[in-house]
Amino acid sequence: MFRSLSVAVALVLSPTPAPSVPPDATGPIENLVLPVEDIIGEIESMDGTESETKQGRQVTVALTSDVLFAVDKWQLTAEARQRLRQVAEKVDAEGAGGVVKIEGHTDDQGSDAYNVSLSRRRAQAVMSAMRGLLTGAGVTLQAGGYGESRPKLPNIVEGKPVEKNRAKNRRVEIVFTAKQ
Hints:
Blueprint: H1 2-13, E1 41-44, E2 50-55, E3 58-64, H2 65-68, H3 78-94, E4 98-105, H4 112-133, E5 139-145, E6 156-157, E7 160-161, H5 163-169, E8 171-177
Helix pairs in contact: 3-4
């Protein structure tokens, strides 16, 4: 037993010489081509009610509906106007002009038709407010509602609803192109 153990230790601890390559050895060189995926970072407020992502020059600011609207409503709250003023300042300072998209989203509660209608009305309410807040020239606003069709996070995990995820899915996103 000790003899085989000492042989094994000797083999492990002894240096192994590098394999020698004949000087006239040739071989094909192949290019490695690997896909590069975009890394999209997200910055989120401490309370989770606002986030920002940037992909290339496209910036998306998401505000949860809970901070913008009362439940099942599309009239903006007083707090919403303050938050939208901050977003408008960001768009004015960093935006390249052109189209600013305002996209409404809901969670999976309610019918598809109801959610699309609610998300569209919310996006239009935000668009109306932003129209009065943006000072930059050359900006066109577009509003659209997507209901529950584009969740940020899964509403249901392992067969159970996740209220924290649903809250993040109820949102309005302001999407604009940043200056170079």
